[in-house]
Structures are given as C-alpha cells and as structure tokens.
Amino acid sequence: MANDSFNSSVCRVHGMPFQPWTGLVRPSDVGYPSPALANVTLTGLSPRYCPSCADTGRQRLRIGDVKREQLGAIIYRLAGSAQGREMTVDLGASAPDSRAGRSEAVPVGLPVSRMVQPATASLVAKPIQAARPPTPALPTVPAEDDHRLDDIVLSPSVRKQLARAVTITRKAAILARWGLRHPPKPILLFIGPSGTGKTLTGTAYAREIGRTLHVVCSTGIEGSHVGESQQNLKKLFIKAEETGDVLFFDEAEWLLGKRCSNPSSAADSALNALRDELLKLLETATMPVIFATNLPESVDPAFRRRIGTTVKFEMPDEDARRRIVARELPVAAPLEEGTTHRDVCARIAAGSESLSGGDLREVVKLALVSAVHERDEAGPVHMADFEAALAEVLAARQAVSRKEPVVTVDEVAPGDLRQA
Q: Is 0.90 surpassed by the pTM of this model?
C-alpha cells in the first residue's frame, strides 16, 4: 500500500500537491465502506487529497494516525447501531496528533465529483477526548508477493468474478446511496484444489484495492483458556477494521465448518463458540475478508449467506499450463542449443495434465536447480532437466494422492491442524 506522509506536500503516485479537502466526508471515504454507515458524516478530520487521484476515481483522503485510531475506535460500535441513520461524528475536539502527523493513504472508489451533498444530522456523537490505546499488531503473516491480477493466469469466469469483487469493495457506498437494502459485502470465498492460485490471487486482489493482505493461521487465533479464541478473533477483526487491511484465512474449512448440534466434548463446544463469534463479526465487518478452502461442501450454510462473492478455482487446462510455465520460466535462463522457451512450455504443458499451477512452478525450479548443480552458471538447461523435474513432481503428486486419508472437517480440531 502506498503511504504518503500527512505532512508531505505532494502525492507520491502523481507528484501533484495535496490540497485541503473541504467537502463532505463519509466513513467510506476513509476506508470504512459499510452500508450501515452510509449516512454518517465525519467532521474535525481536516483531510487532504490529490486532485489527480480524484480524476481517476481513486480518491485518497489522508488523516493523521491519532485521528484514524479514534475513528477506528468508534466505527466498530457504530456499525452495529447506525443501520443507515443520519448522524454526525465530530473528532474536532480530540487530542492532537503527537506522532509527527503520520497518516495512512486509503483508496476510495468514489470520485470527488460524485460526493453526495451534506445531509441534515439527526444525532451528533460526543467528541472523543483522547485516543484509544492502539490495538496490538495483527497476529498474521503479511503477504509479500507483488503480483497484480493481470499477472496471474486465470480463467475468464474467475477474472470476471474478481473484477466484480473489486467493484463491490470500491463502490459499496454507491450501492447504499442507491437504496440497495442488502448490498453484497467484500467477503470472498475461494474454493478449489491446492496449488490453483488462491493465496496468490488474494494477494493480487488486495493490491488491486490498495490494501495489504494478512494471512491468518489457526495458531494466531487459538487460545489455551475458555473464551480466549473468540477474543483473539475479535481483536483480529478490530485491528483489521482500523487499518483497512485484508484478512486471508487459508485452509479455512476448520473455521467455516458446520456447527455441532449436540457437542460431545469441550473441544466441540469451543469450536461452536468460535464459529458463532465469527458469524457475528462477519455481520458487521466492513473490511475485505477472504476465506480459502478445498472442502467447499463442509462450509456451514450460515457462512454461505454472509459471503459476498464465491470464486471457484479449477485445475488449469493445457493452454493455461503453457501460459503458467511461460510466466515462470526466466527469459535469461540459458537453454541448450536447438531448444526454445516455447518448446519447453509446450513440452511441460502437454505432460502435466494432473498438475496445478503451484506444481508447475516447482517443475521449473527443480529443472533450473538441477542445471546449476550439474553445469554451474554457464549451463545450459537441457530439455532432459525439465523432463526429469516433471517426472519427479508427477511421482510426488501421485504418492500424496495414494496416501492421503479421507477426513471430514468436523473430525479435525484446530489443535490437530497446528500439530500437523
């Protein structure tokens, strides 16, 4: 995410001088695009903006860090009580920003020219007198990949669904102003086999909307005391609401699974309570959340109803496999005489029908490592290196398929996942 200092004079993207923003400010304009907050007006923020960003429909309003923490402190409460009511939240009487005026640039999908006119406020919230102590950092792993959606080999249907999800995230406030009572939320469910690009696509989606992706694992949520897991999950969502970052729950079947109607153990009861807490959090969540699973049949219908977009990833066909190899194979790799990059891509694609995109990346890596090991920097990389690497990955995949036990999600507790 590009960050421009609140005290800087120009936009890092366009090089244009920042200007004071004097128009109406809604929560969606500073990173909280919740339909429930569509009629909330924010005052006392003194935001600034880049005119060029506004012209492109990627308006970025910048506010100081302390102001953002104060705003985040009340947004979570307002999301459940506002429900479309008109109100004004004044942060003008709050404590000054003591941290050198730093701020976070948050992309907003609504151009300045289409900002709505001020509405008459029926309720004025009390000014916040002091900043809330900052929430601890997200117990997650920030994704470092810099891919964009255009860089990833995706089917036309998946690409269309992702484009729609980006629109939902950027322009949820518009749908609310049009009067849509239950607009789709920026909550996504990625389903498909392992290695089909779900995490990579989640990273690219986050970058497309100008956010940071945080990958959440079960160990970042699970607690050792009764109720601790629910509290950890709630803190995770609160922090993500404040920062606007995207949460990515990988292998989420243990969290989205069907709740036990008659729990027979303390572990079943704890998992039920955790799933109930997640349902409540998703009901009021305004930031993007992505769940990824290869067991879609295990997802509780209650979670399905809260998902805004479901994206189905499938194993790549031969043309897709060829394009994946073409993107993974470095142009600078020295191939043996008489062999072209196109030959290598076609050969691997033709012989890898059962492999995923992740498997194909492994084939390319193994072939290049083998060539360097045997022939050093001069190379070259032989077609035989690629064929041997392909055979090795195919054999490993078949071995895993033969030995992999069939286990339902309700038979696996979070602790089992951690130990594995």
A: no
| Dihedral angle computed from the Cα positions of residues 121, 69, 221 and 168, in that order, rounded to the nearest 10 degrees | 50
CB 353 within 8 Å of CB 396 = no
Contact 61, 30 (CB under 8 A): yes
Give me the helix-helix angle, 383-403 and 341-350, nearest 10°: 20
Fold type of domain 141-314: Rossmann fold (3.40.50)
- H helices of 219-328, in order, are 228-243, 253-256, 266-284, 301-304, 318-328
Q: What does the domain layout of the chain look like in residue ranges?
A: 19-125, 141-314, 318-403
* 271 Rama class: left (phi>0) / alpha (psi -120 to 50) / beta: alpha
Top CATH class, 318-403: mainly alpha
The dihedral sign for the CA sequence 378, 146, 345, 389: positive
Strands 187-191, 309-312: pairing kind? parallel
Q: What is the chain's alpha carbon radius of gyration, rounded to the nearest angstrom?
A: 24
Cis peptide before 27 (omega within 30 of 0): no
**How far is residue 297 from each of residues 172, 277, 303, 403, measured CA to CA in Å?**
29, 21, 12, 22
Judged on CB neighbours under 10 Å (0-12, 13-18, 19+), 28 is buried
Examine the pLDDT at 5 and tell me if it is beyond 50. no
Average pLDDT, the chain: 76
What is the Cα–Cα distance from 38 to 284, expressed in whole angstroms?
13
CB 304 within 8 A of CB 184: no
**Residue 401: which residues within 8 A CB-CB, separation 6 or more?**
none
Q: Indicate the pLDDT class of residue 388, thresholds 50, 70 and 90.
A: very high
Contact 140, 215 (CB under 8 A): yes
Kind plus residue range of the DSSP H or E element containing 392: helix 383-403
